[in-house]
Amino acid sequence: MDVTSLPSDWPFREAGSRVLQGAHRWWVCDIGAKDAPSVLLLHGLGASGHSFRNLIPVLAPHYRLIIPDLPGHGGTKTANRTRIALGPIAQDLSQLCHVFGVEPIAVVGHSAGAAIALEMATRTSDLKVVGINAALEHFDGAASLLFPVLAQGLAALPFAGQLFSKLWGSQRKVRQLLEGTGSTLDDAGVAQYVHLVQSSAHIKGALDMMAQWRLDPLLARLETIDAKVLLIAGSGDLVVPAQISRSAARRLPNAQVIEVTGGHLVHEETSSDIGTIILQWLQTETVSPPAR
Q1: Cβ distance 44 to 110 under 8 Å?
Q2: In CATH, what number does 3-140+213-284 get?
Q3: pTM attached to this predicted model
Q4: What is the pLDDT of residues 258-277, one digit of tens each?
Q5: Cα–Cα nearest to 110, from 18, 17, 239
């Protein structure tokens, strides 16, 4: 997706810029209190930094927020698709932070972005991690073998991106996909995902990331990750059930887990509640559920 093709009302487009680093031409939103500690926000597979659009106003008065589109996603282009894997993405994000001259105190990651955040924490001391519906479990049984093989096959097809965009790029189909995660977004939120799905380059980037996604090395090291971790789990998540966060929290030495009402995109549905939880935890390392 060419950044110039972004709609004029794309969330926080005016705060975005192109940054060339390594194999990637990143699209990065740099917003918030410039003299405050920095926090890195990482979206999940198939999304873009726009997914934090409602969370940004809650966090920005307190922190400098660095919000990249992941390689191959949204406005970020890559010249080396072997770098769209868990370890390389974590390495390249650390270098991207150096380009901005920041050392984040925390990484907030949604879904696959939470796995990347934990991978970064294995490489950087004193880095806090907030995982929102963290994708920290691999497929069971035959699916664990077939999924990467199928993804690799799809990613290798030269017209796979165009085909998926054509099949799924309507508002009705995208709304169906989103509701299948257990979340319901407003019309503006759905329209933003429609724009992404209609981009064959974005779809190709998501397929490439799926094809290279390997969680086993990270999962095998969970007990050794000393970072302070908060896992926020949506009770209605149909993609990453809350049990996955509870299970991961038991293995991580310094983890807390809190269950909230919402689906996989809970940070887009109830951003005020999620933002309040994140702020409280970053500032006090304690957390309480939102008032009902």
Answers
A1: yes
A2: 3.40.50.1820
A3: 0.91
A4: 999 999 999 999 888 999 99
A5: 239
